[in-house]
Amino acid sequence: MQGNHAIKFHFIAKYFKNDEKQLSCGENAYTSGHIKSMQFNVDIQPAYLKDVKASMKKRIYKVEAYIHLTEGIISTSCTCPRGQAICHHMAALLYYAHDNISSTDKAREWGPTQSKKGDAENTLSIDQLYPRVEFTAMVEEMENSKIETFRRRLGNTNVVGFSWYLKPEAENIVYVLVPPIDEILFSEDKDTYLIQKCSLDADTIKQIAAVTVGQHKNEGWLVSRKMRLTASKFGAILGACRRNKYPKSLFKGLLEGYNLNRSMGQR
Questions:
Q1: Which range (8-17, 49-58, 190-199) has the least confidence?
Q2: Measured between alpha carbons, how far is 184 from 229 in angstroms, rounded to an integer?
């Protein structure tokens, strides 16, 4: 409120000169709308100020203040734990009174603004204002076979860069044919176990070749290589055998335990 304030701000600043923190918290409480109601009676000397204050914990505190309109604030009290000294509820009430009471005001009461009774009944929801409209971008329903054909065409032409992401997960058929590296490392008799698993008949070899043909262009090739003893790892294994040293990094590499997320080549 602009004009002749009944409660001067320098009265408030003087009263809280040793408690600036409470003054600052009171200003925040006032601007946040925590003052629920206020009563002011100028006919009582000193003038009597009272309010009902809602705290952040949804508790109600009653604050009272006696003010001499020419000399300043005489006393205050509050029902909060700090109410016998100085609290921010007092500051919030005084801020509210400073902005809302003029020197010409008589005894009166302020309360929260209430909406008209009919406003709630006439208020429309978003769904009522903007009703949903059934919409589809397709002229007719698409069959799964047509969708699959369209997806394959996109994958062959590489028009859409992420079309590979839409492909079904590759089946790890090789898992039952060739053991993963951890089974070899944790087997009791590694030599016997490895020789047995490497003894493949011609039909099994052809089956593995059919699944992994195409190398990096075939998802099955990537899945089959994962966690397996491939030719690219033989050099590290043979070198460790010659040196008769088996560092942790060797097993970590065989088990693919390295994190390559920070490698620029992998990005």
A1: 49-58
A2: 9
Largest Cα–Cα separation, the chain: 111
Instruction: Name the 3-class secondary structure at 49.
Output: strand
**In the structure encoding, which two tokens stand for residue 177, read together?**
């044919």
- By C-alpha distance, which of 47, 36, 39, 45 is closest to 89? 36
pLDDT class for 110, splitting at 50, 70, 90?
low
Distance (Å, rounded) from C-alpha 126 to C-alpha 128? 5
- pLDDT value of residue 165: 63
- Beginning with the edge strand found earlier in the chain, give each strand of the sheet holding 47-54 in spatial order: 72-78, 60-68, 47-54, 35-41, 108-110
Q: Which of 23, 28, 82, 72 is nearest to 49 (CA)?
A: 72
How far apart CA 57 and CA 92 sit, in angstroms, is 16
Q: Which two tokens stand for residue 222?
A: 């990537």
pTM of the model: 0.39
Q: Report the distance separating Cα 3 and Cα 170, nearest Å.
A: 78
**Position 77: which residue type?**
S
Measured between alpha carbons, how far is 172 from 170 in angstroms, rounded to an integer? 6
Domain positions in the chain: 9-110, 172-254
H helical segments located in the chain: 9-15, 20-31, 88-100, 117-122, 126-129, 144-157, 181-185, 190-198, 202-212, 219-225, 234-243, 248-254
The neighbouring-strand residues paired with 110 are 38
What the block records as the tokens of 200 is 């493949």
pLDDT of residue 156 exceeding 70? no
**Structure confidence at residue 95 (pLDDT):** 85
Q: Could you tell me the two tokens for 219?
A: 């998802």
Q: What is the DSSP letter of 250?
A: H
Contacts 24+ apart (CB under 8 A), 135-143: none
